[in-house]
Design brief:
By secondary structure, this protein is an alpha/beta fold. The protein folds into 2 domains: 92 residues, 2-Layer Sandwich (60s Ribosomal Protein L30, Chain: A), CATH 3.30.1330.30; 146 residues, SPOUT methyltransferase, trefoil knot domain (Alpha/beta knot, 3-Layer(aba) Sandwich). The chain is built from 9 helices and 11 strands. Helix 6 runs parallel beside helix 9. Bound molecules: S-adenosylmethionine.
Length: 261
């Protein structure tokens, strides 16, 4: 879809049905990304996503919202308005804002994420897609260049995309079965509540390893770390939430002068 807005609701019910069917199918399609809500759509547009279709129950409202929230972004040409009942059938759980879009999924691999020139967050078997999305969001905000998940959690799952407000398009993301044996010259820093070192500056091209919600980092990943860094906590508190720990580490390290935003 190109920039610009034609402003005409789809007059043809069969066209609307077809677009709604494609949006519903995108939820489980590994080649597509479902963007739920205006923030996800805004970030996807801003960071160069290839948007295939945009649906809304209220084109005027969507246009107003984008103008308010993202004056740099225009409603894509070809955006189609659905009738109320068509929208309800497509979106049974109310979205925070009136937009549902489908983009092509970039073909990212672990090697591509590890080839980015910057700090990469490595999540060891994250269980909660909301946490995964929150990590992508803070990684993008804090200037990390990639997020790699080890295990079966999909960083492009609609729940993770929603939690990240579509910022998967602003960093390099991929899932992998295991962290490749060769990670080049990157310094590996494990974020570990039982670590010995206190957080200082993070290496600008480091790998930041983060453990799973219950069990923390697996021993084989911990063994690969050059440093095991802890964030100090009041006695009696056993750990921070995974995404909170990543946020504290990235912004704490930036405050310690590692040159990222
Ligand atoms: C909910 S915690 C897991 C707690 C787990 N029992 C453990 O010992 O790691 C999820 C991940 O967040 C990071 N984390 C949480 N609190 C931390 C802290 N105080 N210092 C360093 N990392 C922390 C670690 O990477 C941890 O594996």
């Amino acid at each position: 879809m190109g920039a610009g807005y034609e402003g005409e609701p789809a007059p043809d019910p069969s066209l609307r049905r077809d677009l709604a069917r494609r949006a519903a199918a995108a939820r489980a399609d590994p080649t597509r990304v479902l963007l739920e809500g205006v923030h996800a759509l805004k970030h996807a547009l801003r960071f160069g996503a290839d948007i295939e279709l945009v649906l809304t129950p209220d084109l005027t409202r969507l246009t107003e919202l984008l103008a308010q929230l993202a004056p740099d972004v225009v409603v894509p040409a070809g955006t189609q308005e659905l009738e109320r009942q068509e929208w309800r059938d497509l979106v049974p759980r109310e979205l925070p804002s009136p937009a549902l879009a489908v983009a092509r999924r970039p073909t990212g691999s672990a090697a591509e994420v590890l080839a980015t020139a910057g700090l990469v967050v490595v999540l060891d078997r994250p269980r909660h897609l909301g946490n995964l999305g929150a990590v992508v969001r803070v990684a993008a905000a804090a200037g990390a260049t990639g997020v790699l998940t080890v295990g079966d959690a999909d960083p492009w799952h609609p729940t993770a995309v929603r939690a990240a407000a579509g910022l998967q398009f602003a960093v390099s993301v991929a899932a992998t079965d295991r962290l490749p044996a060769d990670t080049g010259t990157r310094t590996i820093v494990a974020l570990d509540p039982n670590g010995t070192d206190l957080l200082g500056a993070l290496p600008s091209d480091g790998l930041l390893l983060v453990g799973t919600e219950r069990g923390g980092l697996t021993p084989d990943l911990l063994d690969r770390a050059d440093q095991r860094v802890r964030l100090p906590m009041r006695p009696g508190v056993s750990s921070l939430n995974l995404a909170t720990a990543v946020a504290a580490a990235l912004y704490g390290a930036a405050a310690n002068g590692d040159g990222r935003r």
